[in-house]
Structures are given as structure tokens and as C-alpha cells.
Amino acid sequence: MDKIKILKRGIIKDNPVFVLLLGLCPVLGVTTSAFNGFGMGMATTFVLFMSNFVVSIIKNFIPSKVRIPSFIVVIASFVTITELVMEAFLPDLFDALGLFIPLIVVNCLVLGRSEAFASKNDTFSAVTDGLAMGIGFTLALTALGAFREILGSYSLFGYSFIEGDGMLVFVLAPGAFIGLGYLTAIFLKIIGER
Amino acid sequence: MEYIFIIIGAIFVNNIVLAQFLGICPYMGVSAKVSTSVGMSGAVMFVMTLATIVTYLIYNFILIPLDITFLQTISYILVIASLVQMVEIILKKVSPALYQALGIFLPLMTTNCAILGVAILAVQNEYHLLQGVVFAISHAIGFGLAIILFAGIREQLDLVDVPKGMRGAPAALVVAGIMALAFMGFAGLV
Questions:
Q1: From the CA of B47, how many Å to the nearest CA of chain A?
Q2: Residues of chain B contacting A21 with CB distance shorter than 8 Å
Q3: Which residue numbers in chain B have pLDDT < 50?
Q4: Residue B138: its pLDDT value, please?
Q5: Which residues of chain B form beta strands (DSSP E)?
Q6: Which of A18, A94, B22, B77 lies at a C-alpha separation of 20 to 30 Å from A30?
Q7: CB-based burial of residue B96 (10 Å sphere; 0-12 exposed, 13-18 middle, 19+ buried)?
Q8: What's the confidence (pLDDT) of residue B95?
Q9: What is the C-alpha to C-alpha distance for residues B173 and B175, in angstroms, rounded to an integer?
Q10: Which residues contact B59 (CB under 8 A, 6 or more apart)?
Q11: What are the strands, taking DSSP E only, across chain A?
Q12: What b/e string do you get for A31-51 counting C-beta neighbours within 10 Å, with b at 16 or more?
């Protein structure tokens, strides 16, 4: 398949968050600021890229009955690597993301791409797909993080631009749902689905 | 008394879906009808309690003695995946009626982050076994409460004239946000 097409599909047409609604737990849970959203997106992109790479290589050796547990072990290994590296080099981000780092294992997006794409395509297409989906996911998380940070604490990437405390509700749980609802509507309008 | 704090905290104050954002996929995915959401909550309660017990035993009797707690994520997800498979096989033999009722929800349980999340949280909070079981059951009740209420609202939402751009997922997300706002009223209860 055309690589440009795969990239475009992952970022826009089948955007994992706004269109496919996959992996919403970290999307809502960690996006209290744009930087946290970006960090989570990068961690997920790494896991997606590497697990798609490995799954596409080993797909011919795995009996189809045990493929899901095998994919999960591959994914869990890369999640553990991410967890240890992040704890060592980015301790602040590690604390902010907390429980959601080990939970990348059960992100339906990662397992979904292994099962639906990497196990059926050649290695180069699979890593392109992992990268595209990861970029789409990161963009969505950063956008929602920025939206909540701007309204909730009047700042962006930690730089405040208006004096004041901001609308607290956007930092708390309800703001995550409502913000994602409106961003989804806007995204669907822009790409012409509505 | 301590158990009452755990129960109320898990069901209302730190509701697993609306305050901790765990298990959003089934929350959005199978909440179109009240009847399916009831089946889903039953399956979640069953697997969540079993998984918390088994992962507690694994953590305290295998991972800690061997000093390999960094394998927590990998071992937990393997245990949960095989547990789900085992429950599926046993239910099929013992109670075909229940198996039919739970249907597709059982295999989906492996990638439900609420299950893994509660198992990890129970270890993080350093609960002993009985506390862990109470913690898991009350989180499952909280999940059931949130998803059944949400399904009820969504059934009504289908009958209303929603603006074109907000139909479907966006409107559902905003409704979930308003529910989360309502649940924030419980903050400070415990």
C-alpha cells in the first residue's frame, strides 16, 4: 500500500482518538496540560512503532490461536522498557502520568493495530502505520491538553499568558469529557465528515 | 468502619470511570442499551474480583520473594488474559445461560484497563487480601452505576433532536462530562 496514504489515514481519516475513539482512558486521564499530553503521546508512539515492527516480523511463526496473548507479551515488554527508561530519565513526567504508563499495555489502540494491521502486512508498511497512528494519537492528546491548559490555568506548555487561576473545571474530570466532546465535533467538521 | 470508607470512596468519590478515567472503552462502547450495560457490569465485577485476588497472590508470593517486581505489568496482563480465557471455558461448561448472557463482553475484558488498573491500585495502596476484594467489588459497583445511568441517558438521547455536528460520540462525551460534574458533588464525603 502507498506509504503516504497510510500516514494520511493514521493522522486524519482514521485518527485514533477523534474518529476511531480508541484508547480514550489515557486521552482523558493525562491531558491536564499540553506537555503531559505530548509526553503520553510520545510514549504510546514508541510502543506502537516497536510492537508493530516486532509483530510484523514474527507473524508467520505464531499459531493463530495464541496470537493475542503473544501480541500482548510483545507489547508488555516494550511498555516495561518505556516505564523503566521514563522513571530513570524523566521522573517528573513519570510521576504526572502515573498509573497510565503501565496501562499502555491495555490501550485498545496498540493491540488493535497489531491485530488489524501489523499481523497482515509487511514490516515497512507496519512501522509506517505504527508511526502514523502514533502521530495522530500524539496530536490529539496535545490538542486536548492545550485546550484544557489554556482554559483551565490560562497557560500553554507551562507559560502563563493571562493573570489569574483559570476555570478549574477544565483541569478536573468533567472538563476532560466536555473538551474531548467539542474537539471531536470540531475535528469531524474540519475533515468534512459532518 | 475502614471498609465503609473503601466502599464509599470507590463507588462515589473516586468513581472508576468518571473520576479516574479507567474503563472508558466499554463505557463508551457498550452503553447504547441498558440491557447490555447490565451484562457488562456483571462480567466486570466477576473478572475484576478474581483478577485482584490472583494478582495479589502473585505479587506477594512470587514477585516480592524473588525481587522481580519490575515484571509486574507483564505478569499481571498475562494472568488476566489467561484468567479471562479460563473463566470463559468454565462458564461455557458450568453455566451456559450466564455464558450466553455475557457473550462478547468476556473476551473484551482482557483489554479493559479498569481490570488491570484496579489490580495495580490495590497493590499500590498496600491493601491486604480482604481489603483488596472489597476494593475490587466496590469499584465494579461504581463502574456498573456509571455505565447503567449513562446507558439510560443515551437511550433518551436517541429520541432528542441533537444538532447535526454533535450527533453520536460528541454528544455522548458531553453527557459523560455533565455526569462527572454531578459525581464531583461527592468529593469530600470520605
A1: 15
A2: 28, 169
A3: none
A4: 92
A5: none
A6: B77
A7: exposed
A8: 78
A9: 5
A10: B69, B72, B123
A11: 155-156, 159-160
A12: bbbbbbbbbbbbbbbbbbbbb
Chain B nearest CA to A79, separation (Å): 8
Chain B contact for A77, CB < 8 A?
yes
A149 is a domain residue: yes
Is B55 in the A-facing interface, judged by CB distances under 8 Å?
no
| Cα dist from A60 to A25, A51, A120, B61, B74, whole Å | 32, 15, 10, 37, 23
Domain extent, residue A54, equals 3-187
User: What pLDDT, on the 0 to 100 scale, is given for residue A138?
Assistant: 93
A75 and A47 in contact (C-beta within 8 Å)?
A: yes
CA–CA separation, A53 vs A62, rounded Å?
Answer: 15
C-alpha A47/C-alpha B13 separation (Å) is: 33
Work out the number of other CB atoms within 10 angstroms of the CB of residue A156. 16
Closest C-alpha among B162, B156, B111, B120 to residue B139: B120
Residue A7 touches chain B, beta carbons under 8 Å:
no
Give dist(CA B40, CA A183) in Å, integer. Answer: 28
Backbone angles phi, psi at B32, to 5 degrees: -75, -30
Domain boundaries, chain B: 2-184
Mean pLDDT by 10 residues, chain A (194 residues): 79 84 84 88 92 89 81 90 90 86 86 83 88 91 90 79 77 88 89 72
Query: What single letter denotes the amino acid at residue B173?
Result: L
Name which of A69, A83, A182 is nearest B73 (Cβ-Cβ). A83
ipTM above 0.85, yes or no: no
* pLDDT value of residue B102: 67
Residue A159 is given by DSSP the state E
User: Hey, what's the cell of A163?
Assistant: 493573570
Residue A174 falls inside a structural domain: yes
Element (H, E) at A123: helix A123-153
What pLDDT, on a 0 to 100 scale, did the predictor assign at position B23?
84
Is the sign of the CA dihedral B99, B103, B106, B112 positive or negative? negative
Residue A193 lies in a domain: no
Q: Which of A25, A179, A188 sits opposite B24 (nearest CB)?
A: A25
pTM comes to 0.85
Per-residue confidence (pLDDT) for residue A45, from 0 to 100? 93
pLDDT for position B62: 87
pLDDT in tens, B12-37: 888 888 888 888 888 887 777 888 78
Count of structural domains, chain A: 1
A181 in any annotated domain: yes
